[in-house]
Amino acid sequence: MIAKVGRLSNSESDMIHRSKSILASTGLALTLISALAGCATQPDASSALLPDSLLKPAGYSLVWADEFEQDGQPDESRWTYDTSRNSQGWYNDELQYYPAARSQNARIEDGHLIIEARKDPAQIKNYADWGGQDYSSARLLSKDKAAWTYGYFEVRAKLPCGRGLWPAIWMLSQNGDKWPDDGEIDIMEYVGFQPDTFHATIHTQKYNHTKGTQVGTHIEIEDACGAFQTHALLWTPDRITLAVNGQPYFSYENDGKGKESWPFDAPFFLIMNIAVGGSWGGQQGIDESIFPAQMEVDYVRVYQEPDSVTP
After folding, report:
1. How many angstroms separate the CA atoms of 231 and 15, rounded?
2. pLDDT by residue (tens digit) across 234-260?
3. What share of the chain in percent tops pLDDT 90?
């Protein structure tokens, strides 16, 4: 595996604000890998602050998982669907329609969750909340089903390749109603016009793209799309660390100055989706030959220490 790490550019991070779509409807110490250039408002990073590897810590036990073993629709006790902006259109100028429980867009098949983006306007135009979109996809949430405060999270997934796709694995506050004040953790974002790159980003009131103080980085890795990769988050009261295939590349430290910079002492839920187009994902257009495009998820696992198990 070849991996190369870099800081999220201002043009990239200016485009990352998907969380507003859910929330409209429903002194920080920043650590980044090696000598990465950053905003003047943010302290310099040091690779010495990152561990050599990131695996499930000793003493953590499995508290929640989906292994996607039963073919059919995703388990409704674990997942729900976000359809909130279909009729109005999604934020970031995204072009997809997200149906609920439509097997063409979300299903379990051969031990994997399939999230599938399609170009099928004739098939979706009769939905009551259709907003004129040409593309369909799925956006699955564990909101109101499962949420956690702290833990080790692991998602093994294979992303689709193709210009115009924008898949993501991320988290928002279960009880929050204001972005970015209540926080966002982007475990992984991928845009198809950067075929070998994963992005990791944190959003807070103090650090977000609307102020130009965004906190993010990226890692370049062979087979970022088209092959299974394991994305991990270790979230403690003191620090958030993100990794791919056991290699940490992003860390964010609690400075102890309160919610403005650290809103991460509350339950967060998981989100998995493929967006199509948009102000970031569609920055270089959409290759119409890529559809249907599938994100395959092998498993989602959540581990916690006994003393931090979320009720």
Report:
1. 22
2. 999 999 999 999 999 999 999 999 999
3. 78
Cα(107)–Cα(296) distance, rounded to whole angstroms? 10
- Reference 78, options 165, 145, 130, 152; nearest CA is 145
- How would you classify the pairing of strands 112-119 and 106-109? antiparallel
Quick one: CA dihedral 127, 128, 131, 137, positive or negative? negative
Among the listed residues 269, 257, 270, the one whose alpha carbon sits nearest the alpha carbon of residue 205:
257
Residue in 12, 94, 184, 296 annotated catalytic:
184
Q: What is the per-residue pLDDT across 167-177, written as a single tens digit (0 to 9) for each?
A: 999 999 999 88
189 is an active site residue:
yes
Distance CA 272, CA 274 (A): 7
State phi, psi for 21 to the nearest 5 degrees: -65, -40
Domains located in the chain, CATH noted? 3-308 (2.60.120.200)
Catalytic residue among 12, 189, 253, 296: 189
Rounded Cα gap, residues 155 and 56, in angstroms = 12
